[in-house]
Every structure is written in C-alpha cells, then in structure tokens.
Design brief:
single chain; 348 residues; alpha/beta; Rossmann fold; five-stranded parallel sheet
Length: 348
Amino acid sequence: MKPIKVLIIDDSALIRSLLREMIASDPRLEVCGAAEDPYQAREMIKQLNPHVLTLDIEMPRMNGISFLKNLMRLHPMPVVMISTLTQVGAPETLEALSLGAVDFIGKPKQNSDLGLSQYRDEIIRKLICAAGANVTAMEGVERAKATGLDAQTKSKPLKSNFICAIGASTGGTEAIKAVVSSLPINSPPIVVTQHIPPAFSTSFAKRLDGASAVKVYEAQHQQPIEKGCVYIAPGDAHLKISKTAHGYICQLDSGEMVNRHRPSVEVLFDSVCEQAGKHAMGVILTGMGADGADALKRLRDAGCHTVAQDEATSIVWGMPGAAVKLGAAAEVLPLSKVAANIIQHALK
C-alpha cells in the first residue's frame, strides 16, 4: 500500500523540521513537501497532490483560516490544524473546524507535558484518520426546521425523567452544532461528551449557545439538569449524571482516562443508563475510534432508544460504525434527522 502523502504548512522552520521528523518516522506516512506560507502551499498542492495537510493558523501574508476557507471552496481535502491549545486559540480553531478542517492538535513543544514521543503518536494517528475522512460529509446537511419541532413540543408534553446523551469525537463539534441548533426551546435535557481539550470546551459551549434556541452550558459539578438545556462536558473531566428527589444533576469526575479519553463517551452513557434506565436515549455521532460503542449497546439492552449517525454524513465513521457493528443502534440516521428523532422519542 502506498504511503499517505502529507504536506506541512508552517512559517516556523523549527516546527516544519520537528513535524517532518515525526511524520517520516511512520512508514504509513510520507512528507511530500513543506511550505512556509499559504502562497507556496497553493503551488505545492498542485504539483505534489498530497492526501492530507497540516496547517498552522498564525502565518504571515495569509493566515491559516483565510487559506482554509479558499481551499475548502476550491479544492476540498483533509486538513489537520496545528493550533495553540489555549483559551485564546480556541475560537479560531473552532472556526477552522466549522470551515471543514477534520481535526486539530497543539504545536509540538519539547518542554510540554505531552512528551514528543506521545505527540508523535497522536499526530500520526490524527493524520491517518484524517486521510480517510469524508471531508464533504457536512455539505448540504440541512438543519431540521426548529419551527416544525417547536410546534410538536407545544402540542404534546415531554416524558417525565427523559434525558438524551450524545457522544462525539472527530468532526463532532459541527455535528453537535447541527443537532443542537435544530432543537426547539421546549426540548428535553441533553448531556453531551465531545472529545475536546480543556481550554476549548468553554468556547465550544458559548459558540453553541449563540447558535441555538436552547440554553447551552459547559457543565458544572452538581448543576441541576433542566428541560430546554444542553450540558457540555468540560475538556478535562468525565461528565456523569445523578438522580435526586428534584431531578437529574451533573457530576464531574476527574478520574482516570477511559478509552484514552477524559471526558469519555462511555462514562457518560453508562452513567445515564444507570441513573435514568429506560427513560434515557443515546446518540453516537461522528468520531475516530470506538469510545461509547459498548456503552450504547448497554443502553439499548436496558430498553433505551439508541441512534448512530450514518456513514454518509459522518466525517469519520469510527465510533458510530463500531456501534452499528455491535448492534448497539436501534436506528442509523443521517445527521439532519437526529434532532427530530430526539424530539419524537422525548414526547409522550
């Protein structure tokens, strides 16, 4: 099998050198070139025909966001953003994902907590995953008409104790936005785990809140869970729920990683299954790996309705694909139908 051709785009000679060395260490990948700015990259893409790009956000002459916007319009292809994983860098990185970047990773630092060998493993995993991503999956994904769903929730009451849990990874920020922004104000409570770094979850929740009729929060420990609200797991803690005399509350757990993740979709789904039983619904969206697939099966076995996103609309059909193979999904749906399905099962 021919190696995956990677083009590095970064204005720092040191970063280009580090990335080249790391990527070239895996026989499945080949660095076909390295550009120091988007203008040079544009010519190299034509000449070298790479399978996947790494793209820096902060560059002279043209920034990564402007370049990505043009690239996805004229020549859509898999892109992994190399970004500053800080609160400051979060809005730009989330914008890059909304423009069609498949994934992102921080800049390699020799003095970072994530050692260079761990960083190398992570970027190799992300590049291989990105090379197989369906970069046009989100094209033409229609938002369900919130007005139509609103009419449904006004004509019928919501089931008491109903709660929906959603899990996602690669491609998930935009998939979750497509679902949540389609929900009417009078929606059931929804808890969400998206694999995301600690500095990004606050920005993600704010961005989602601004695009939605429902209220979106970054979940706080012991925060009451209410109808018409969505709770996003913080980037450094597992999100669980507890049932009290007054309803469900959020519980945050900074314990060990599960399936290499914290927050983990499996932890959320198992908690919802334990606390809500057959009153729960589980939804697994686009993502690399299999986090949450086994737990979605346990939800289905407990009598819950379960949904997996279909392959055609998934950026990466890893997690939903694993769930489908296990028989964990009662329904496999295109992204545009997920919000309506949640409302349908939440109504009495």
